[in-house]
Structure formats: C-alpha cells, structure tokens
Write a structure and sequence with these properties.
elongated; 8-stranded mixed beta sheet; alpha/beta; two-stranded parallel ribbon
Length: 248
C-alpha cells in the first residue's frame, strides 16, 4: 500500500474519521480550519504511521545493510566515530584485510585498561547507541577502512507530499502496523480524540502482531555479549527468517 492508501485505510476502516459524507478529506491540510470537520489531519496520520513503522523496525529488525568507516591515524589518531542516524544495532565489524573485530563493552575493557591508552591495530570495538558512536580499541596506528554490518531504520519517512510513495516495509506488515498508528491517534490529548480504552485496544492488537522486546533482556544481552574479551572471532546470533540484506 502506498502512502495515500495507508492514510485512507487508517482514516476510513479504523478511525472512521472522514468528515462526513462527500467530504474531500484528501485535500484537507493542517491549515484548513473551516472546510471540513476531521479529528486528525493527513499530516498527523502520516506522522503516526511513520512512528508505527519505526517501532516495527525496532521490534523486528527487518533489514541489514553494510557501511564503511575511515579510521584516522594521522595526523592525530582518532578511535571514536559517529554511526549513521538510522543505525539500530551493529552486528559485525572487520578491517580492510578481512580481520574481524570483537564486540565488547566498557565493563569488560575495565579488566584490560591498557587498551584505553594503547595505539595499535584495533582488536575490539564498543558501540554506544545512546551517543550513536562506535569506538575502537586500541586506537588505530594507521589509516584504514572498516566495514560493518548493521540493522537499520527506514531511510526515508513517508510524507503527504508524496502520496504514491511506498514504505520500506513488507506488505504483510502494512495493515497490522496501522494498529499502532491508531493507538497514537487515540492518545492525542484533545477532547474529541483522547480515548485511552481504544488506544490500549489497538496497542494490544499491535503487540500481538509485533511482540515487544524486553528492554531489560536486550540490555543484559548487550552487556554480557562476548565476555570475556576474545580476539578469536565474533559469535553470530540467529536473527531468523525476516531479515533482508541490503548494501548501502
């Protein structure tokens, strides 16, 4: 379904918000106050659909892609780099010679504090998704190119100005994704839109299609992965059959 079709289905089949018989809601904009009575503008619905798509990505990790980073050693060695804003999770990292780097964390590095100050060929990396950075240890001693595989978010959000655009989402996910968009609609804090009971109903429908991941479990997993530090390779988890691999 394209953008216009998604908005039409959400407005007509789920929200029942078309402004009355014969109302031209498709040409209604957020600047039109008197021409039609709608509880949500098209722009609001698109924003909620984009939020729903993003949450589907966070829960299912549907797309892998590959990126590169240029490690800088001269004139001043740099070991910390910014990841793309759409990066959800870094999976694998290797140097230009094909040697894989091990994923670790600051807690594990504490037991090998020489890595903090050592300048050499990197052996491990630490990802900080709060700061959206990846840091290499030891600090690179020579310029190199690092290749990394990662899960990503959608690259281009939907917009009402491009009604024929398609979301980066498998077609079988389109309709169940709209349950979360409806949840957000009914959480809008206005007298004619706020409906906590309906909001929770649609959230439950969405959760049934895309079960939430325990934040504690995910955090614990990330903090204990690949301990102790091991330079002999990277253990790969099984991410299931929904994953699609793309190259940037």
């Amino acid at each position: 379904m394209n953008t216009k079709e998604l908005v039409s289905y959400l407005r007509t089949n789920i929200l029942d918000d078309t402004g009355g018989e014969g109302a031209d809601w498709e040409n209604f904009s957020e600047n039109d106050f008197d021409s039609i009575q709608l509880r949500w503008t098209n722009e609001e619905l698109i924003n909620n659909i984009n939020e729903a798509i993003t949450l589907v990505y966070r829960r299912t990790h549907p797309i892998k892609t590959i990126g590169t980073l240029s490690l800088i050693a001269t004139p001043t060695p740099i070991n910390s780099y910014t990841l793309p804003v759409e990066c959800l999770e870094v999976l694998l990292v290797k140097l230009s010679n094909g040697k894989p780097l091990d994923k670790t964390d600051i807690d594990a590095l504490w037991n090998d504090e020489t890595l903090f100050t050592e300048i050499n060929i990197p052996r491990v990396y630490v990802v900080d998704m709060e700061q959206n950075t990846i840091t290499f240890y030891p600090t690179p001693v020579e310029n190199d190119t690092v290749t990394y595989m990662y899960f990503r978010l959608p690259s281009t959000p939907l917009s009402w100005s491009a009604p024929l655009a398609y979301p980066e989402l498998r077609i079988e996910f389109h309709l169940p994704m709209l349950f979360y968009a409806a949840h957000l609609c009914y959480m809008k804090d206005e007298a004619n839109t706020m409906d906590p009971k309906r909001a929770m109903t649609y959230l439950a429908l969405f959760d049934a299609e895309f079960p939430p991941v325990s934040s504690y479990g995910a955090m614990r997993k990330s903090h204990t992965a690949n301990r102790p530090i091991n330079y002999g390779g990277i253990r790969q988890p099984n991410y299931g059959s929904r994953i699609r691999l793309q190259n940037n």
